[in-house]
Structure formats: structure tokens, C-alpha cells
Specification:
alpha/beta, Ribosomal Protein L25, Chain P, Alpha/beta knot
């Protein structure tokens, strides 16, 4: 539901009518009359369109431009993010969405703040999906990443069950990221809070196939680490550069 995919090919300058799942995706992206959106046709090509009409059953779009290449990266990145304090989660969602992340899973680690503690100061978790939608609109992506429900550390580890590379950032004894990367269509990455992960948490991650890696010798804030890591993965394995 995060991507508008049509069952037919489209042409620039033509109008298209969308119903059913594509309409649901349009509404999920916050589409309204006058909105500019990115959509994908049956041939897999991405186009820009403007919403001309919108009702509960259908919408009419005017196709006015085409992208020379796909707007979505070839690699799917799932970000497991320990919940940070203050405005940092919102910042992480916005910037990693712009960089092309597919799913974001907030979780509680031993050294992170809880959602209850964070929400007691100012309730913002209900806006997380909206922030992702706005970041998609700004960056002209075709797909809105899903912001999953807040989880425990172990629940976050079990979130992704498919094949693919699993990485956990660990500043103490992590491997060199560049030497660890290998071609993969799906990557699940886990970023810890200020203070990092405990040795017990890293051991649990290892048992589930996660490889500890680090981003050089400097200690980065959690939001810097998350954004940097996603950017590096998109550069090395995705569509940046």
C-alpha cells in the first residue's frame, strides 16, 4: 500500500483513472486534488502525475513527466532503530526515508529511553508515519516506508526472517563495514542508542545471524550513525553515486 502501481502502461500528457489498491496507496501517501505524486506503470517505469479529481472510489491523474531510471533503490533496507531522545527519531525517519529505506522498526534496548518516557514529555509517535509520507513527497520517491510498531529488543531481532545481510553497529569489536559488505538485495541493519549496545545484546544478535560492524574509530550519535549507514549502503549496493 506504500506504492502506487498501475496495471497498465501510461503516457506523458495523458490522464489515467485509478481505483482499488492504487487509490488506497494514493490516499496513504496523503494525496489530494492538486498533489504531485510518483507512480509506477505496468512496465515498471516511474512517472510524475498531478491529482485532478479525487473521490472515495477513484481518482484522475494527469501524467506530466517520466523518470529516466527507477526512483526506488535496487536494495531493500530495513532499519532497526533504538529509540533516541528528543527530536532524533523524527530526524532519523525523515532522512533515511529520503535515502531510500524500506522499513523502520523502533525498539527498546537496555540503554535507550522507553516510548512511555519519551511520550510523557510530548506525544509524537503518532506522527512518525506522517513524517515518512512528507519525506517521500519531498524526495519524489515512489514508495512510502512503513514505520512499524515499537518493539522490545528481542522482538526487533526477530522482525526480519528472510534471507539477506544482517548488520548490527557495535563500536567496540565490530568488523570494518567496507570489508563486510557483499552484494545483497535485502539488508537488515540495527542501530543502537547513545551508549551503544551491551555485550549481551550483541551476543543475542550474533545468534540470529547479525554481523557486528563499525563506522570507523569515531563515536557517532545514533542519528548520525543511522543516516550515515543507510547512505553508505545505498552508495555501495543501491542507487546512490
Amino acid at each position: 500500500m506504500g506504492r502506487i502501481v498501475l496495471g497498465k502502461e501510461v503516457e506523458i500528457g495523458k490522464e489515467v483513472i485509478i481505483e482499488g489498491p492504487p487509490l488506497e496507496a494514493l490516499l496513504f501517501q496523503g494525496g489530494r486534488v492538486g498533489s504531485l505524486i510518483t507512480l509506477t506503470d505496468a512496465a515498471g517505469k516511474d512517472f510524475r502525475g498531478r491529482v485532478l479529481t479525487l473521490s472515495g472510489e477513484r481518482a484522475t491523474l494527469l501524467i506530466f513527466d517520466a523518470f529516466p531510471s527507477p526512483t526506488e533503490p535496487s536494495v531493500e533496507i530495513i532499519l532497526l532503530q533504538a529509540l533516541p531522545e528528543k527530536e532524533r527519531m523524527e530526524w532519523i525517519i525523515q532522512k533515511t526515508t529520503e535515502l531510500g529505506v524500506s522499513v523502520i522498526v523502533p525498539f527498546k534496548s537496555q540503554k535507550s529511553i522507553t516510548l512511555e518516557e519519551r511520550e510523557a514529555k510530548q506525544k509524537k509517535a503518532h506522527r512518525w508515519q506522517e513524517i515518512a509520507v512528507k519525506a517521500v513527497q519531498q524526495s519524489r520517491r515512489a514508495r512510502v516506508p512503513f514505520i512499524e510498531a515499537y518493539r522490545s529488543f528481542l522482538e526487533a531481532l526477530e522482525f526480519y526472517q528472510g534471507d539477506g545481510l544482517r548488520l548490527i553497529l557495535w563500536e567496540k569489536e565490530g568488523r570494518c563495514l567496507k570489508e563486510t559488505l557483499k552484494p545483497s538485495k535485502k539488508i537488515c541493519v540495527m542501530v543502537g542508542p547513545e551508549g551503544g549496545f551491551t555485550e549481551g545484546e550483541v551476543a543475542s544478535a550474533r545468534e540470529r545471524g547479525f554481523i557486528p560492524v563499525k563506522l570507523g574509530q569515531r563515536i557517532l550519535r545514533t542519528e548520525t550513525a543511522a543516516i550515515t549507514l543507510v547512505g553508505i549502503l545505498q552508495y555501495e549496493l543501491g542507487d546512490l553515486g
